[in-house]
Amino acid sequence: MDAYIFPGQGSQKVGMGRELAEASRHARDVFDEIDDALNQKLSQLMWEGPESELTLTSNAQPAIMANSVATLRVLEKDFGMALADSAGCVAGHSLGEYSALCGAGMFDLTQTAKLLRLRGIAMQDAVPIGVGAMAALLGADLEKASALAEAAAEGQVCEVANDNDPTQVVISGHMEAIDRAVGMAKDHGIKRGIKLPVSAPFHCSLMQPAALRMKRALDDARTSAPAVPLFANVTAAKVTDAAEELDLLVDQITGRVRWRESVMAMREDGAERFVEIGGKVLAPMVGRIDGEAQTASLVTMEDLETFAKENA
To answer: Which residue of 122, 144, 222, 249 has the fewest CB atoms within a 10 Å radius of its CB?
Structure first.
């Protein structure tokens, strides 16, 4: 069984999706629809930059989704590999969960773009710039990261935000607490802590105002039952019910991205190969979580062509 997985923030780069749009009308249609939905030339920003503007959370989130969904659309329409027939399940890392849900048909494309634009703005607005921070802990497992976060908090917020793989955990919270954690990393048996170039402390309790805004938006969302099950970030468990998933998307704003556990759960459910749609970030993580899992990363037309040929 194949699991289709969709990357999250940090995977954006200037030029993303351009080759697909030049080669495929179906990819162009995706970018055009998202430009119309957001009343913005997001595709132009994706292809030409400036990078500083593309990296803004409110742009990066819909842009990464646009690239993933365009990649999937090319696979489906140009190469005849429909997700519903090819994938046994889907999952996405943070905002990638929305890309996965769009791909599986729970949200339509216009609605997904608008939800992610709002999510980006809400997360940016939740905490003033300079108040929060995030850091990647390299050579840390969940246990070590949790102990460090607790020790560094000192009455402030310092929480595990992403459990990515056995060698990388990300923490999030107040700037001072994150700085303390980075300074204390070696004492906790962690190779090193690196502050991340992010504009807000995602996936921690400081994001509560954003969760409330997303709840209001998701309460009004139009949904269909997803074509295949999704493994949700906050539970690392299979979801098939749209109403349940809407609640989990609200929890996801403040909750931990349990990526390592999600991959293990998909493996236990029968996933043998993990196909990353529109990025090369998650496939290496999967390899570190389970060395026996097969992976593929689909980014270019050549990647898609090769993949389709091999699976004809």
So the answer is: 222
The residue among 182, 198, 214 that closes a domain is 198
> What is the DSSP code string of 263-291?
HHHHHHTT--EEEEES-SSHHHHHHHH-T
212-233 confidence digits (pLDDT tens) = 999 999 999 999 999 999 999 9
**Torsions phi, psi for 163 (to 5 deg):** -100, 90
Q: What is the mean pLDDT of the chain?
A: 96
Helices (H), ranges, the chain: 18-23, 25-38, 42-48, 51-54, 57-77, 83-86, 96-103, 109-126, 142-153, 175-184, 208-219, 242-254, 259-268, 282-289, 301-310
Q: Is the peptide bond before 50 cis (omega within 30 degrees of 0)?
A: yes
Residues 244 and 140 in one domain: no
Q: Which tokens hold the place of 247?
A: 């609640």
Main-chain phi, psi angles of 303, to 5 degrees: -55, -45
Domain that holds residue 151: 132-198
Residue that terminates a domain, selected from 154, 173, 198: 198
Distance of CA 162 to the CA centre of its chain: 11
Q: How confident is the model at residue 21 (pLDDT cuts 50, 70, 90)?
A: very high
In total, how many domains does the chain have?
Answer: 2
Same domain, 97 and 40: yes
Query: Which active-site residues does the annotation give?
Result: 94, 203
**Residue 228 tokens, joined:** 């295949």
The Cα–Cα gap between 136 and 175 comes to 14
pLDDT by residue (tens digit) across 165-183?
A: 999 999 999 999 999 999 9
Pairing of strands 87-92, 2-6: parallel
112 with 221, same domain: the answer is yes
Same domain, 233 and 277: yes
pLDDT at 199 over 90: no
Distance CA 175, CA 135 (A): 10
| Pair (107, 226) in one structural domain | yes
Per-residue pLDDT tens for 251-271? Answer: 999 999 999 999 999 999 999
